[in-house]
Amino acid sequence: MSWLGLGVYVLGLIGYGGTLRRLGVSPYLSWITAMLFQIVVLYGCAMVGILNMGIQWVTYAGIAQLVLWTVLSFWRKAQLQFEGIHLFDFWMITLGLAMGQVLYHSPLVHYDNFSHWAVMVKFMFFSGRLPGAADKLISFTSYPPATALYITQVLHWTGFSEGAMLLAQFALIWAAAYSVFAVLRDRTRALMGMLLCLTIAISFVFNIAIRLNNLLVDYVLPILAVAAIAGIWAYRKRPWVLSGHVALFVAALLLVKNSATFFVVVIGVYFLVTLIQNNREHWYVATLRIPVQAALTLGLAAIPFLIWNWHVKTTFTVSKHEISSQAYANQLSGESAKTILKIFHKFLDQIMSLGSLSTQGILLINVILIGAWVMIRFGSQQKNRLLWVAVMLDVIFLLYYGSLFGMYILSMPYAEAILLDGFERYMGSTVILNLYIGAMFLVRAMDGAMYEQNFQKRDSRSFATIVTKNAYQIGTLIVGFFAITMMYSEITGTKFTNEMNHNTLPLQLQRDSKPWTHLNHKKILVVDPHAGDVADYYAGYAARYYYFTDKAVGQEDFMVTPAVFKQTVQSYQYVVIPEYHRTFTKLTKRVYHQKIKTGLFKIHKHYLQRMH
């Protein structure tokens, strides 16, 4: 990694953050807002074919802003107010650096990295553009490029590596997670801050199927939605700052993945409710302004996504997972009522199972919110909205269940739908979203139930009794302990996963040869002794990513005659053997008179040449 290049990027990010804060953006939202603003600008640059130039312009513009604010600060102009350092800041910095260090040394292993996410980043980094119809290397051409654009920007300055990719995505996630502290009423209260830290740590439990050492966006979607919701609350009394915030975050979310629509609906509803609740105008003025403001904000936010859909339809004749009512109608017409009913019964069994991680998460959220409502309402004699929040979150869960079932019926082949392929992944995203929403409401309610409501009077003596003071201190210690322990568990769990993956196919390819970085069309045969890797195309996708070719194919079965074996091998230009394959080695010995076990070889007419 180029530390100098990383410094250039960070300086540019600081410059944007300073500008945004002077425009009224919360310091807890300035980092993620700066990142998303750059993503949207880079998206525009990529669409007009100047991605690399755009990356440089965007970054240098940030540095120029930093220089401007630094110069003005010497003249004591446009200075920012120092927000102070709190306990949760130390938690975020210390454990964020620890996780970042682990991720930087993590390999990419998950299937979806090679079917799309990592290969998309590699394509844009080395080609400097979005894929076109002729670029068969990219299969899921309808997937929007937001996260890939951000990671490509970071790699432009740090250099290309899998560790840098993971580090870049983690920075995006961590900046979005930091936004939740914007909802705190009193940031000097350690208990509330550490509760949000604990929420961040617990959220990774429901991301266990993916973890942070992958470039999949199952965690990115909910955490960006959480940041959007935190910002709506923070800017609730500034309607035009609020509109800008919502427009940016919704636009960025829609450019992350097509399935972001559900999260956008949640944001849109909360945005509209906030406009209504904080209206101070006459009802007849508000009746006109609020719908117009909401429509203009969300309409503006949808423009980049609509342009992307137009780009997909005009560039690619067929695109996987493209949003198409005709495709949905064709899929539904092919499903019988009996088939749909079988999927529904399987779906119902899954959501009613206490062994389901997402079901456990839903129960956990409800138990905590309802329990807290009872304690605050009857213990502290304080009215609160936590019961209403629990009901609201359950409605969100039910709506998402409906949309998820619709996806299985409309978008998935029966063989995958009947297995509820990816169920816990998809539901995990909604559990994460609602976990954060519940926690933000919880800390607000807890703060409102404290004995002393005047922040200036709060000190070590501002408790109702010595018992409540001791309970607060002990509670802070316990919550802080679990926040640290659970985040440390995620770090060690990621380390353990990396160690367990040391002999997986992608790492075997790394041991056999150096990665190729020039986009090509070389025909490569991947000899894989594991039939499953070939059947689900994992071997082919991993090799396509590693050797940067759209013509890598995996094969396991070589029970053929020597003549057929030679004909098969000669139809390729290279053969890679990541793991010893007994049949292939014996036939190679017989046909080419070479003893070969593993490695990358260039195929000649009468022999195989080992490549280094």
TrEMBL record:
Membrane-traversing stretches: 6-24, 31-51, 57-75, 87-104, 164-184, 191-210, 216-235, 247-272, 292-310, 351-374, 386-410, 431-451, 471-491
Protein name, entry field: ABC transporter permease
The species this protein was found in: Levilactobacillus fujinensis
Domain of life, source organism: Bacteria
Tagged with keyword Signal: no
Keywords recorded for this protein, A-Z: Membrane, Transmembrane, Transmembrane helix
